[in-house]
Write a structure and sequence with these properties.
By secondary structure, the chain is mostly beta strands. The chain has one domain (8-244). Helix content is 11%, strand content 34%. A hairpin with a 2-residue loop joins β15 and β16 (235-236). The radius of gyration is 19 Å and the shape is globular. The structure holds zinc ion. Zinc ion binds next to loops. The site of zinc ion has 6 residues, from loops.
């Protein structure tokens, strides 16, 4: 995994996990097939390749053509998102998100603080890259929550849960339209998921304000410890509630 050079489009910094127009999902026909590793019939592709599966689960097949065409801010390239999660890479620059033993910074849209046990599909991020993300990403522009996390564990996937009888996706109650499924779910459920995101669960979370994090390139910020609190610019401070942020740029079309 190598860090990306900084890419900008219309003045906005382009995250490494963003999808480009040259990376549209490939037209694939789903079918039923015997999945020996999962002990029964499940979802597969016609002309399926070994690379279509990760940990035995079927993944959406998308082209790998980063930098081709226009970036689609707000759309995520699934395989790069998965690599960022599994290798603890910054979602913006694709460099290691924090040195071994150091806490990881996570950033999500919305008012709800990140707490232990949360399942996240947004990969970790550097403090300095997070500043660019909240400036440029429409989803984070109004309000976001950030936390330093002691440990992020592999948990499962977010994807489309197919109905065996119809080979159509079930409706999801989640606003993303995706269904979260842990790797420890019954095989009967794992066989019928089409994964599009990797999900981790986080432990040892301390809410932080981005403007309080020390600006240390290639690290998430200070060392995390419940007592004393994380090292922040200007000394030791108590964790902060979710932060409301005024976007300094107009919301771009198509995001
Ligand atoms: Zn970064």
């Amino acid at each position: 995994m190598t860090a990306r050079g900084r890419r900008y489009q219309q003045g906005m910094r382009v995250p490494a996990i963003a999808r480009w127009t040259g990376e549209a999902p490939l037209p694939m026909r789903v079918t039923r097939r015997w999945l020996a590793g999962l002990g029964g019939e499940g979802l597969g592709y016609e002309g399926e390749l070994p690379t279509d599966r990760h940990r035995g689960l079927l993944w959406e097949r998308v082209a790998e053509a980063e930098g081709e065409g226009r970036v689609q801010i707000g759309l995520v390239h699934g395989p790069r998102q998965r690599r960022a999660m599994n290798h603890r890479l910054c979602q913006v620059c694709f460099a290691r998100a924090a040195p071994a033993g150091e806490p990881l910074l996570f950033l999500v849209a919305g008012t709800r603080p990140i707490t232990t046990g949360d399942r996240l599909t947004s990969p970790p991020i550097h403090a300095e890259c997070a500043e660019d993300a909240v400036r440029d990403c429409p989803d984070l522009a109004d309000v976001y929550s950030a936390a330093l996390v002691q440990r992020a564990s592999s948990w499962g996937v977010a994807g489309l849960a197919y109905q065996p009888a119809t080979l159509k996706p079930r409706p999801s109650r989640h606003r993303t339209g995706l269904t979260l499924l842990p790797y420890y779910a019954p095989a009967a459920d794992l066989r019928w998921i089409l994964a599009v995101r990797e999900a981790v669960t986080v432990h040892g979370c301390t809410p932080v304000r981005l403007e309080d994090l020390a600006s240390e390139p290639q690290t998430a910020g200070g060392r995390l410890s419940p007592d004393p609190p994380p090292r922040l610019r200007g000394g030791w401070r108590v964790p902060a509630p979710p932060h409301r942020h005024r976007c300094r740029r107009p919301r771009p079309a198509g995001c």
